[in-house]
């Protein structure tokens, strides 16, 4: 399992871009985790699935609400990871107003979750293999703090906890 001091898994995530920019075309774009995290402080949080109750009502909104405070505490980017495709993550981000605040990154094949050792098997509930709920403060690709939730819990991976850790 991913732990403090580890480098982030060397995988590719996908991000839906609504407005093309230099180097990023409209639609899904690959995000090389190592390159994207290099030289930055990232507040990363992962969750079981887009549009699920806790994720939609509390987890993502907390990071959207605290985005400016996190950036003031030295966080360069906030990443939301979920075992969903980039299209779903893009639509969910639009609905939750994440633009310019939280990068919504799709881990559609659970490559990141598997490499991190943080999978959650929700097959019995019809959801298949997902990511556990957790957060991590990452500096230059190295995990500084890691907050893994217990089953069915939402107590330590929230934006308020991350903000306290970023303030250090």
UniProtKB/TrEMBL annotation:
Keywords: Antioxidant, Oxidoreductase, Peroxidase, Redox-active center
Catalytic activity: a hydroperoxide + 2 glutathione = an alcohol + glutathione disulfide + H2O
Domain Thioredoxin: 2-168
Highest taxon in the source lineage: Bacteria
Enzymatic class: oxidoreductase
Enzyme Commission code: 1.11.1.27
Family: Belongs to the peroxiredoxin family. Prx5 subfamily.
Function, as annotated: Thiol-specific peroxidase that catalyzes the reduction of hydrogen peroxide and organic hydroperoxides to water and alcohols, respectively. Plays a role in cell protection against oxidative stress by detoxifying peroxides.
Protein name: Glutathione-dependent peroxiredoxin
